[in-house]
Amino acid sequence: MLLNNKKIILGITLLLTLSFVTSSVFADTSAPTAPTGVSASAVSPTQINLFWSAPSGYTITGYKIEYKSSGGSYTTLVTTTNTATTYSHTGLTTDVAYSYKISAINSVGTGTPSSEITITPSSSSAGTFPGTPTGLTATPISPTQINLSWTAPSSNGGYAITGYKIEYRIGSGQYTTLVTTTNTATTYSHTGVTSGQVYVYRIYTVTSFGASEKPSSEIAVTLKPASATSVPGAPLGLSATATSPTQIVLSWTAPSSNGGYAITGYKIDVKKGSASYTTLVFFSSSSTGPYSNSYIWNTNQSLLGSTV
């Protein structure tokens, strides 16, 4: 939908090659580096939960987990065939020290193992409730949609986070459960809401041990009726820079007014000479550039940027 007809004209005379700039995907050429952030939690007298982060820059296909008990030698505990970065080691002996190291696997082979981590389950070992989500925000996207975003807690209580419980109320009403998610995503879109109402949200972290004892801080948002909103303003400062014989980088500044709702993307139109405008791209992003594309331009061109 074209939301502002104000055109920003740039006189550009270039000879370019018709092509689209895409991201190339290359196969891994070496085994991965070691996983990072390896941690362990004794969640019972006979169970240790392991957590780690994947090494960046590789297409990981699995992990090799090695362990040893007090005085022993390392042996393979498991070689996984998925990208999960948690593992539960069960059937352990209480008051015995267990050491672990983890290696990532890709199409080339098994990479360098992580640093060793050691932990001892005791008779008093027990998991705890996870921490509380932080940084909750609520952003109106349309007269019928509010987008939520938050940050995962720093502590999971020894159990992998399995989801989040989102509660809401309208005005001073009672809280009700909106959804209990079953993944670790930290965003959620609440659709079908009623404009003109005040929506208040809070979120709990969920693991297999249970939900966080306290919810996040409340966040309230007033959803304006459609009659109280308007289309966003035009993008500002549109510029085009030829960075190579086959690429032009476009950049701009977000408008000073979003019309009452968060900007969800931009529509970029292009024309050749006196021809009619056609859509170059319509993408869902609040980024203000750079946006890159390349194709044949051999005469003066005009660029039109619109906010959506």
What does this molecule look like?
By secondary structure, the chain is mainly beta. Helices cover 0% and strands 45% of the residues. It has three domains: 8-23 and 230-307, Immunoglobulins (Immunoglobulin-like), CATH 2.60.40; 36-119, Immunoglobulin-like (Sandwich), CATH 2.60.40; 134-228, Sandwich (Immunoglobulin-like), CATH 2.60.40. The chain has strands at residues 8-12, 36-44, 47-53, 62-69, 75-79, 86-89, 98-105, 117-119, 134-142, 145-151, 161-170, 176-180, 187-191, 198-207, 219-222, 236-244, 247-253, 266-272, 278-283, 291-293, 301-307.
Structural class, by secondary structure, is: mainly beta
Kindly provide the radius of gyration, computed on alpha-carbon positions and rounded to a whole number of angstroms: 26 Å
Strand order in the sheet with the most strands = 1-21-18-19
Number of DSSP strand runs: 21
Helical fraction equals: under 10%
The figure for the number of domains is 3
Number of helices: 0
Beginning-to-end CA distance, first to last residue:
7 Å
In CATH, the architecture of the largest domain is: Sandwich
Rough outline:
flat
CATH topology of the largest domain: Immunoglobulin-like
What composes the largest sheet? 4 strands, antiparallel
Topology (elements, then pairings):
Blueprint: E1 8-12, E2 36-44, E3 47-53, E4 62-69, E5 75-79, E6 86-89, E7 98-105, E8 117-119, E9 134-142, E10 145-151, E11 161-170, E12 176-180, E13 187-191, E14 198-207, E15 219-222, E16 236-244, E17 247-253, E18 266-272, E19 278-283, E20 291-293, E21 301-307
